[in-house]
């Protein structure tokens, strides 16, 4: 068989990674952009989303679609509420100081992780996908003077994976519309650009921060609910999304949402393709190398602006 | 209208203002004069709640606003035009004005009134603030503050770095606001420009009160001005 079908398959796998990564990283980028907080606990919010999805699906026990649909709503809301509580009780008290918030979110990471281990246990558990039919992928080949379609053996994906890509794209469009077309989005962007002037124009900055921290965590949780039917829920699953999100956010430009999405697509696709043809480890090495190159040649990221 | 009584304030542990008294009434322009580092900008930032009020009281129409959270102070009716304009650079002109409009939920006709004062901004509504010229940025900073229908307007060096025609336009707006009954507290380095529009001038020296005199008296006797701001 030709190389083309394999590249197509790898690209679809990469697109699933990119979609979930974009959702997770946009949450991290939003928090950094508006609050200037480097949230080391972001991966744990992702993990919590997956674990809560498992609990919700178990509790409902009905058709997988019912449990999954409920998890899609419940997990981001619960994780968002936990993040808001963490903001009010921890980050606000240390006045959002950039250095101290790093230490505080490291502490938050371990608290969430260990509490999950105590309550959920060390096992990896799956959440059943609401639908998961196999979809064969066609390919075209020039044969006997004409382009002919055929179905290469083993070239297939699932309807659920395509749905993950579509759902993530829809949510990202929603985030963009929220930030650019709503009053709350305007106030968030104003706060991002000048915190003091935001206060001088009546914007309740601390409430904006709590909302942003909640939305950022909620997006990570939503990404986890989408991926948990493919990758299972485990109390240590937050490390990889955190690392990849940081890679994406640095490449895209700290605080730049469009840059984050473009970088997520770039990293996700390369991860998918390199993992299929070579190895997942090599994919991570290349991503890390790309970060190093960006930091050397374009420290603000591909879409970032220099900070004064 | 706006009154500061025994105000002490500063940055962190460094106290800049000490036992400062000021009063600016409705329909009055009070100009704050002093050397660089005397504490003029600190006065503005303390009124806006951006710096910690260490001692004293700040009242607006008799109500204590010194203890309010910073975001509640503009909602009480104080508009601030900071030194250096401090626009939201990535937002458009329309969005910068929208931020001003939401502060006190101003009705849409307020925006029309403000744009009537700055017709050039109407042509730039979709343009990002950072791409405006210096004069247009100052117009936008002023318009943004007027959008909240202020009872008190704080202006920190509004004509800094502007060409003469733009200075005149800003000056006319300040006088217009005073005539509409707004209390104006103005920090300005250009002494002649100040004396031509101010009703009273308050001198500040090392964060403490100097004399407060009618502007007309200073026009007659420039020696006092030289004593406080001369080099």
From TrEMBL, chain A:
Gene Ontology CC: plasma membrane
Membrane-protein topology: Multi-pass membrane protein
Keyword Transport: yes
Membrane spanning stretches: 6-33, 45-62, 68-90, 102-121, 159-179, 208-230, 242-269, 276-297
Keywords of the record: Amino-acid transport, Cell membrane, Membrane, Transmembrane, Transmembrane helix, Transport
GO-annotated molecular function: transmembrane transporter activity
GO biological process: amino acid transport
InterPro entries for this protein: ABC_transp_permease, BCAA_transport_permease
Keyword ATP-binding attributed: no
Subcellular location, record wording: Cell membrane
Main location group: membrane
Similarity remark: Belongs to the binding-protein-dependent transport system permease family. LivHM subfamily.
Protein known as: Branched-chain amino acid ABC transporter permease
UniProtKB/TrEMBL annotation, chain B:
Classification via Pfam families: ABC_tran
Domain of life: Bacteria
Residue ranges constituting the ABC transporter domain according to the UniProt record: 2-231
Molecular function terms from GO: ATP binding; ATP hydrolysis activity; branched-chain amino acid transmembrane transporter activity
Annotated CDD domains: ABC_TM1139_LivF_branched
SUPFAM superfamilies: P-loop containing nucleoside triphosphate hydrolases
Entry keyword Amino-acid biosynthesis: no
Matching InterPro entries: AAA+_ATPase, ABC_transporter-like_ATP-bd, BCAA_Transport_ATP-bd_LivF, P-loop_NTPase
BP-aspect Gene Ontology terms: L-amino acid transport
Coiled coil: none
Record keywords: Amino-acid transport, ATP-binding, Nucleotide-binding, Transport
Family label: Belongs to the ABC transporter superfamily.
Descriptive protein name: ABC transporter ATP-binding protein
Organism: Roseovarius spongiae
